[in-house]
């Protein structure tokens, strides 16, 4: 451990020359800036920094530059790369002036719309564009007495030129107009000799404008006055209400300015100056040698309070006023080991003696103990100044005295003095690398034997509220009770009852009586009521575990310096905030044990470049929350241009969108590299994924269909701002064939097809059954038809033959039949005719068409045969055209006549029949009338066995005919009317 301490001392053995300079950051082409000549800087309403350079338009997010230049293959690119001025309208569009005229940049669609200037080809000057009350004002560099304007809310979708379509000219009755100012009262126009103020008239500038060139650089509206920078060594103040004009000689050529508290910071051709509008005094702000003779084209103050300076050929310089909260009390370039105040003087203990400073002027007034390394300095409650050196020498100086008194033989052996302390009992304590000595009020010297000559390296002295004197040691910590008893808390690795590291540099107590120990390798340790320690290290947010010194403020917040810079630990929330070079610290090299708490609450820590002094309540509120933004969105590796990412809340992806990437950035220009990022896709990722600040992009491919929530979190690595989270809903839509409605449709379709199939099979089976039944019915009908045909043909013949045979049988013995042989011969002939008719019936059934004439002949033959031996007479009337009818129609017509004649002869006992058959082209009409005894149609129709009437009806049905039968005592009339088909 002795070797460790020796090395630690060597780390701080060097010295650095302190310089009264302002810290600046710079951005140049080495950082990605397109060109080092920056004409103007703008922070838009969404937080991005835009830089107009002489080689393109640059957008900066704190990490990298996105550059926009002319592109011959893109009709929506810039027409010229020399950007002069930038304005933003209320639609987040940028209006640019270039050498090629005015452009409007539609940021959301990433398109530049070129607006032709009134006089194309003329080079615009800076501040050529102005905006006021929604209008854009501009003027060409030509010497004409007119100014143009147009509304800034014009649509950019028109094919024609909005600038030409909507612009109007404002004529001014003056010549050589070179500047105009848009203020609250309207348009203020300047010429080389006059100023035109609305409502007041024309004022003569007289000699105030002598030597002013043909252009003005910038203006600011201050109350009722206009401050004008004419580009020469003066500032013009124009009071609009009072009509007063005054010029102030400055000694520098002013080009731009920006408000800075009560002053204005003025950019010139020779650096940065300040200007007070009340005193009209000017002074140089930045004296850094590297910044001398720098031409500042533009000044802009961003939302974090930083000042951006666009320069000629040197890129961009950035100054953060918050850095001024960290002040350095200079010690002529020597490492500061301690600090104390005695009256109006301050004493810095350094590598080269003591520097005495006037606390009012902050200037060094004396240099004491030159060449000696002063390692400890202390002013007790009596005002006595105590000084200890690395050689073990001790000096004191009473209040209002100028000489030191040396103390000898106090320590057991000479060793480096590390601390002094006057306790509440009046005992004076001296700590060194080899001793802990107490001097009582009676000047009796006591040594703590456990620490004397043990080389425990006592590094810190502290008295707690109980009167215990605590010491930080090489091996843990210890304390001396008011009774004089020493208690040692040694270091054992992993022991919960020891600090987190063997070497302990500082000990403090908070308002609750809790002891805190700063270690030289294990962060800080808190002593709990049960004698255990709780440790807080880099894992908990501390920048570095090697603690050099520590102080506590009025809110129990611990402030410590380490190899990682300055850190603050909130003992209530148990969170850290860390400050480093990027936050305004000149360096991160601090002296071991060199800390001081001022009576006004400020804190001081010794460094290699003077005493770092700051107000803990001011630096704790220095840093504001960044703005977390979505940036580039790529779907299938193609950038999406028609989507506003600024207000994007949900991203809709389809099944063909296999890969998407989304960039993000927390806009924090004061310390962008302090931001750490992580993300998770809820519904897909199981945990958060860390991403480096250089990457800042999430990529997912082949996400399963469904809904997700992407969360990106930006945190401060130093704990300087609260974590912020940005959320984006992501919906991955399936192809239509996997959507719920399509699946439902397919299910319904399947059910429908299944039902249809079942229905089809059922119908098919039913149809087959019906076909079987129809076949059976047809067979039955055919049987019935054949039965009818046989009945009508053969049956009637047999009935006639039977009736004749009966007649012969009954009249065989009588005289009824005189010639029986001849009678039998006729019956034989009739039977043969019946066989002939049977053959004709079969033939008719086999024929498809029958001619009307053939049907007439068959009817004639039948009637002649039937009435040959009858006393009954008949009349057959036939009319027809020469056509053919369906054989079924012909046969059914013939059967109806057979049935009707048979019934008339057999049952009606008619003496005469009238038969009429008319076959037309479309209709068949059959009429049969007899004069027989008739019958009751209703009774006969209900009796069984009377097939004759049923046959007639069925024959009529098969003819698809209208059937009519009328029967009474005067006879029977049958009428059939049928539609026929023929060829």
Description of the molecule:
α5 runs antiparallel to α7 and α6 runs parallel beside α7. It contains nine helices and 72 strands. The protein starts with a helix and ends with a strand. The N terminus is likely disordered. Among the domains are: 151 residues, Methylamine Dehydrogenase, Chain H (7 Propeller), CATH 2.130.10.10; 107 residues, Immunoglobulin-like, CATH 2.60.40; 112 residues; 135 residues, Histidine kinase-like ATPase, C-terminal domain (Heat Shock Protein 90, 2-Layer Sandwich), CATH 3.30.565.10. The strands form 18 sheets. The chain has a five-stranded mixed beta sheet, with no helix packed on it. A five-stranded mixed beta sheet has the order 67-69-70-72-71, covered by helices on one side. β6 and β7 form a beta hairpin. It is of the alpha+beta class. Helices cover 17% and strands 40% of the residues.
Gyration radius (Cα, Å) is: 60 Å
CATH homologous superfamily of the domain at 1-19 and 491-622? YVTN repeat-like/Quinoprotein amine dehydrogenase
Return the average pLDDT rounded to an integer: 83
Output the CATH topology of the domain at 1-19 and 491-622.
Answer: Methylamine Dehydrogenase, Chain H
**Which stretches are poorly predicted, pLDDT < 50 over at least 5 residues?**
1-19
Binned strand content: 35-45%
Shape: elongated
The structure class reads alpha+beta
The N- to C-terminal Cα distance equals: 132 Å
Helix content: 10-25%
Largest sheet: 5 strands, mixed
In DSSP terms (H or I, runs of 4 or more residues), the helix count works out at 9
Number of strands: 72
Please report the first level of CATH classification, the CATH class of the domain at 1-19 and 491-622.
Answer: Mainly Beta
- What is the name of the CATH architecture of the domain at 1-19 and 491-622? 7 Propeller
Strand order of the largest sheet: 59-65-64-61-62
